Amino acid sequence: MALSEITTPAPPVAPTATPVPGGQPLRRMSFGLLMVYVAMLAVNSGGNGILLPNIVAGIDEAGKVGNLAFVTTVAFIANIFAQPLAGAFSDATRSRFGRRTPWMVGGALLTSGFLLGLPLAQSVLAVALVWLVVQVGVNTLQAAATAIVPDRYPAARRGGVSAMIGVGITIGNAVGVVVAGGTATQGMLPYVVLSALAVVVVGVFVVVNRDEPSAHLPRERTGAREFLRGFWVSPRQHPDFAWAFASRFLMVIGFYGAQTYGLYILRDYIGLSDAESNSFAATMGVVLLVGVLLSAIGSGWLSDKVGRRKPFIVWSSVVMSVALAIPLAVPTTTGVLAYAFLLGLGFGVYISIDLALMTEVLPARLQGGSSAGRDLAILGLATTLPQALSPSIAAALVTLTGGYPALFVSGIVFVMLGAALVRPIKAVR
Question: Left, alpha or beta for 98 (phi > 0: left; psi -120 to 50: alpha)?
Fold first, then answer.
């Protein structure tokens, strides 16, 4: 279909679905979104943290750092285009299944199908291309799932669902590392488990939490120029949106810099063997999860209660900075476990608040339009872009400094800068 034939909603169109009333339907949907994020992040954390590093090292041990950076940077292409386009297309979708469901299901199927093909790749280039398609699927699924928050939740309830999503992200990170690390030597098993998880969870979600039909909504045909122009959000007109984007970008790049090379850090910095590092990475994932669970849900509820977001973001950055300093002073397995726990505590606070903050600075909300899927996906680039760029930045730092400590130092700098950039946001306290 040509871009000139793409339909998009007219600016005054109201959101597709009315907010879900309080009570059981809202709690059920929040739990469902938690599980969707578990499935997405399990694929990403298991792939980025365990499966890809093992595959790349198996192809070329000597060039593993640079090759891993190449593989994940190729996925950068998907992160730039897939999520914003999927968000915009889901805004424009008119079907009896609603706007978001077709894209969630399609994204899950694409993710699962190509993840099963990942271990069959026999070269670094082939691995990069297969992982690229996996990331297209993940980004498509994420764009549609994230847009459900402004679609269905009133602003006063978004701290709670943001906390649930934050818990889902962290559980997913742990599940992916535990599954991939615990079964890394068992052939196709980790790929089958993670693929099945994505398909089953998304399938159950769209059946239990049915989207409102959108076939009756008005349409407006637009040309390619107008369609592409919708992806530009002027920092001058919407400074809060720009500050939120920049803050998340820096916070995420600070968090994921060392996480991306976690397996190699355990092997080359801490001194564990390949088998020990796979197993210990799973333990770290569990410890990180415990830290997040202790802080995430309570932080989201408290943020809604006091009506403030920014102090929680600042506090989380301080805790994460302390965590990132621990491996520098104590480069042992004990130090790494302490790092994982404190990082989880800080990240739990951050991830439980940040999505709520993001939904409150959307241009769609300020203008009364109906482009939440597109706008949240643009903000989502502040997460996916630094995740894609982190390996290349980290590889450059390791090469230039000759070791992994630079990753922890740069992480501290990035998360503190990210916290500083929430201060100019005026629409959120």
Answer: left
> 286: phi > 0 → left, psi -120 to 50 → alpha, else beta; which?
alpha
Whole-model pTM over 0.85: no
CATH number, position 64:
1.20.1250.20
Q: Which amino acid is at 192?
A: V
CA angle 34, 389, 122 (to 5 degrees): 90
Q: Is residue 224 part of a domain?
A: no
Please give the residue range of the domain that contains residue 382: 19-215+235-420
Helix (H) or strand (E) holding 206: helix 189-208
Nearest to 165 by CA among 307, 335, 39, 79: 39
Give 21-34 pLDDT, tens digit per residue.
455 577 788 889 99
When pLDDT is averaged across residues 387-399 and rounded to a whole number, the result is 77
Q: Which residues contact 32 (CB under 8 A, 6 or more apart)?
A: 204, 205, 208, 209
Residue 416, domain member (yes or no): yes
Residue 207 belongs to a domain: yes
Residue 120 lies in a domain: yes
Which class for 185: exposed (0-12), middle (13-18), buried (19 or more C-beta within 10 A)? Answer: exposed
Domain count, the chain: 1
Note the pLDDT tens digit of each residue in 271-285. Answer: 888 888 888 888 887
